[in-house]
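anyone else get weird line breaks when pasting these?? whatever heres mine. first is seq + tokens for prot A
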Amino acid sequence: MYLDIGQLKAFYRGTMLGRAAQRVLRERVADLWPMLHGMTVVGFGFATPVLGPLIASNRRVIALMPGQQGAMQWPRGPVNRTVLCEETDWPLPTGFVDRLIVMHGLENAENPPALLDEIWRVLAPGGKALFIVPNRLGMWSRRDITPFGSGRPYSLGQLESQLIRHRFEPGKHRAALFVPPSQRKFWLRLLPTGERLGQKISSHTAGGVLMVEASKKVFAPTKKGLPEAVRRPLEVFEGIARPRPKPASGRMPQLKIDETESQF
């Protein structure tokens, strides 16, 4: 079940914990994708907290927000990059997207398999998606004071298995948000230090959030190609290559016409 757009906006813009989490997630995205330039980048769910830094260097940046969640104008200013859409029916052409970020999307989806199929459809060959989900083993999925306490949390193995079933190839992964989800100033001050230590200790077990990169896997066609087909003789010329003998009587068989059927 999706959270309301007002709740998401209030957390990331209206709380110190939300703004701190946004900074951490942006840093991890930059670690995974350090050189994004001139691409079509799309976010689904509520990915705007990490999409902002990608606007300046890329050709096109779009934020898709599902109807069950609602949408808001983003970014601030005269140009709106937000599109309200159906969860499994996006207004994008097949193979249109170079990079896609799913945040507050997969864990809340009403039909995760269909959502993954739609993600696979819109990705270009060689395109990559980044899934940001609550970590089943972390602290953030166990408290509902943040958006990561909503929906279905994942372990790394569960998420990678689901991606493989839907024709993705899992790649790099990171964990983030290692300190407890608390508004207390002590934990907020400890957040940068906790992130540095957490990255050295564990890549997926201790963090509150998992970030898994996945590539679109395109299989080679299994049918025999054109060269093999051309080497085979065409059936339409079989009579020329191997003439068929005439009937034994030497005459062509006569067609029997029913006089009753020949009347107009």
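and prot B, same format (seq, then tokens)
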Amino acid sequence: MNKWEVSRRDLLKQLGVGAACLPLLHAGLSRAAGGTGKHLFIIAATEGYRQSNWLPPVGALGATLPKTCTDLAPLKDYLIFLPNMKNPAFTGCDRCGHGAYGTVYYGLAPRAGTGEYAEPNGPTVDQVVANKLGKPSLNMGTQTDLPPSNGGPGHNHCFWRGAQQPLNPELDPLVTYGHLFTGATKPPATGGGSTGPDPAVARMMAQKKSILDYVGASLTKFAKRLGSDDRSIIEGHTRGIRDLEMQIQNVPVGGPPPSSSGPPPMLDTKASANYPKIFQAQLDIMLAAQSAGATQVTTLQLADATGDAVNFAFVPGIPAKSPNNYKTPYRNWHDLGHNPMRGTSDDKQIVDQWWMSRLAEFLTKLKNTPEPGGGTMLDASVVLWGNHMHEGADHGSQQIPWLLAGKGGGYLKTGICAPSAGKTTTSALADICAAMGVTTTPFGAPMGLGS
């Protein structure tokens, strides 16, 4: 163990804070423990895309991308589109894509679940990677517990520790924040509903306090002992923590104004209008936790297998009420899949584009986050924006569209739409493992996405 590791541990012990309060530098604990120094992010979407507006031609990506992906164009050199892959983990009908949700990141022969929703017989790719790297993953979701629900673990869980062991995503950013950044002993839930935030953390946040109010001076003093590159990493990390805290401390949309007689309420994780704020807070937690070295694998579920609970009225151009009233009175993911057009407006394409714009923002943050030893977090990352369905209108379960981003530490050959039609999601999972430095996996031979 070198001096940096000793000083890092001593500082955290003195401050009494969580491991994610300090970024991992050159000789961080993950590398000392044999980690790869790489990052895996998986964001699980649903209901596919309007393919004609999302999918570029096979080959090198041009200066412009299809309409839905316009905001990703400046990042094209970091992208790999993977269209029309076969999904051997789902043995149901080709037009039963909802049932593929629970197994799409497993890739192997499934086991029967509830109704059409099959389940894995082993760990999903996130757990395969986390187990090999020797660090637990961080698993989160955005309002996946809201009604309506079709029931069954395979309907609202797509990441699994093993057979009959779904990973329950933590849905409250404040709970995860407390666990990672304050040293709170109440961890995120692993099997049931949210455990709720630690009371001390909730009080601190309700008073508009920051964990940095307690440790900031010590971190600043500590940073002065470091070189300029390392100082910039700590400074960027602390800015990210403050941005995250401001989101969590926000007054819920449509809620009462702050009272002069008491603290404002925290972000209401059950209010549908708060969906984009919760989603953004979860993304920022993923980035902060990985930049600090608290984990190397993070997952985020954007919805369950149908997305009925997501009211897209927060997207500009999408009405508060659905003309179809399909499953719910508002424009949800499922409704958009079955009924993409509203008169002359392609509402599904509009929502697809909103999501790709959010992805572009996240990738830009990764690109602007320096890595210990040089390069950026995007250079060192594998980001999978996944889906379990071709297009909501056809429910295609055997034309899976994925989008990879990041260089994977130099492994991935990016800037292309890969000739992946007819190839398997399993081979793509093998490539993701290889990019993360995990060479022994259950997924077989890679597709050949490496440089």
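btw re prot B: The chain is about 30% helix and 10% strand. Residues 228-248 form the longest helix (21 residues).
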